Protein: ATP-binding cassette domain-containing protein
Organism: Streptomyces musisoli
Amino acid sequence: MTEVLRARDVHVVRDGTSLLQEVSLTVRAGEHWALLGANGAGKSTLLRLLGALVHPTRGSVEVLGRRLGRVDLRELRAQVGHVDPRHPLTSPLRVRDVVLTGVTNSIEPVPRRRPTPEQVERAEALLATLGLGAFRDARWPTLSQGQRGRTLIARALMPEPRLLLMDEPATGLDLPGREQLIEALHQLRADRPALATVLVTHHLEELPAGTTHAVLLRAGRVLASGPVESVLTGDQVGKCFDLPLTLERHEGRWSVRIRPGG
């Protein structure tokens, strides 16, 4: 399969503090990765690195076949969908218009630029896929946190990226909102088999059933990486979070609890 991302022996140091050390990772088309770890483990830093938002202090990162440091980052970022639940929009835009800002990768619509009929049609189709067809004319401030999360995923997909990066997209969601988001991601992956995704979380319960690979990060280092069957075990996840854990998987979804007597 085609490589979408490759990080080799990456180190990231900021203000004298080591955030990532000796991190290597390869993501291929159609793979769906989870980045897991406790707060401060380096998950968001790694995601920003993979999304060409920061450069490594040492090591190399290739995104869509182009190496950071040798490519126009603005052009590269336009080809990577990045979902941040802390999206800074404050205007009361309609949902469809929020999605259409993904064409220009801007927070607000660009003045004097009108979307093409094809772009509007694509926005409508993405809203339908993500279960938001009935909310296309709703205003951003009226949306629930879960509806906002799905809107931002649709926005990130507007440029038809080969890679979708999601930084804790279930943050702040209640149980129905979380399950709607997970189901939408499951449907999205089924509809776009070549799309590669990387999702950051520290809750295994937030992983969609179609998750194929996982990385466990602890203190900026990779503790384990590979197919979920070999990485997401009680022993390895327990080491990652420094707790005696038991993991169970049912119909592709995970649950976790502290091992009795551990």
DSSP finds eight helices and twelve strands in the chain. The longest strand covers residues 3-14. Helices lie at 43-50, 73-77, 95-100, 117-129, 145-157, 175-191, 228-231, 234-241.
